[in-house]
From TrEMBL:
Species: Lutimaribacter pacificus
Keywords of the record: Hydrolase
InterPro entries, per database record: AB_hydrolase_1, AB_hydrolase_fold, MES/HNL
GO MF entry, a single one: methyl jasmonate esterase activity
Record protein name field: Lysophospholipase, alpha-beta hydrolase superfamily
TM stretches of this protein: none
AB hydrolase-1 domain span: 4-228
Keyword Nucleotide-binding included in the entry's annotation: no
Any matching Pfam family: Abhydrolase_6
Length: 241
């Protein structure tokens, strides 16, 4: 079977893959998750966190060739990590994630979406090098269809998200352009508009894109279904969206 390396999105950590890892293991895969710098158990101060640091952490974690899954913001660092360690990345899977567009930072891509569901809720740190969101919007924006207890678990673990990683573009070159790429859209996403997920993957082959009818957090909402899709991608038997 396959080795999966799971990369979280903004303000999250390895903890968000808690329910998915056992499902992938049950299907015969090896799956692990890491904390990017400044997230989870990693103590890097948010003001020192960079996109380069994210990509280095992913590349360093690839001690064996793996399928790399990036959630949300994680689409940017997994793309950059693939540029740095192309021989260690078997496939890139974007889970309701930003797929870097030439010349644009993630923040610029976010503003290209038809509406900005998260922007009104972002609370900047005094130094403007990081941001958080208030607990009272977590259910509605991130976890509205997730099991009881999810919001409380997440609220206890979410961290300040550094702004630097979202302020710089990523360029895909011949070093990594050959790596297979797949996308999982979330049709009930209230963070990255589903319409924009369609826009980002409009020119992708139909069997490279799958749609889940769930929120921005399929690893909590539908971990078994998500594992089955990842399993199919790993086997090269992607189901059309």
């Amino acid at each position: 079977m396959s080795d999966f390396l799971l990369i979280h999105g903004s303000a999250h950590g390895a903890w968000c893959w808690r329910d998915l890892i056992p499902e992938l293991t049950a299907l015969g895969h090896n799956a692990r998750a890491i904390d990017l710098p400044g997230h989870g158990q990693d103590g890097t101060p948010y003001a020192q966190v960079t996109l380069d640091g994210y990509a280095d952490a992913i590349a360093d974690a690839l001690d064996t060739p793996a399928i790399v899954v990036g959630h949300s913001m994680g689409g940017y660092p997994i793309t950059l990590a693939a540029e740095r360690a192309p021989d260690m990345v078997q496939m890139l899977i974007y889970l309701c994630a930003y797929v870097p567009k030439p010349g644009l930072s993630l923040a610029q891509m976010r503003m290209e979406a038809p509406y900005q569901p998260l922007l009104p809720h972002i609370r900047m740190t005094p130094d403007r090098k990081g941001w958080t969101v208030p607990d009272d919007i977590l259910h509605d924006r991130f976890y509205h269809d997730c099991p009881p207890g999810t919001v409380e678990f997440a609220a206890a673990n979410l961290c300040i998200q550094a702004t630097q990683p979202t302020s710089v573009p990523v360029t895909v070159t011949e070093r990594s352009s050959h790596i297979p790429r797949r996308y999982i859209r979330c049709s009930e996403d209230r963070t990255i508009p589903p319409e924009y997920q369609v826009t980002m993957t409009r020119d992708w082959p139909a069997d490279h894109v799958v749609t889940m009818d769930c929120s921005h957090s399929p690893f909590f909402a539908k971990p078994r279904d998500l594992a089955a899709i990842l399993h199919d991608f790993a086997k090269g038997q992607a189901r059309p969206g």
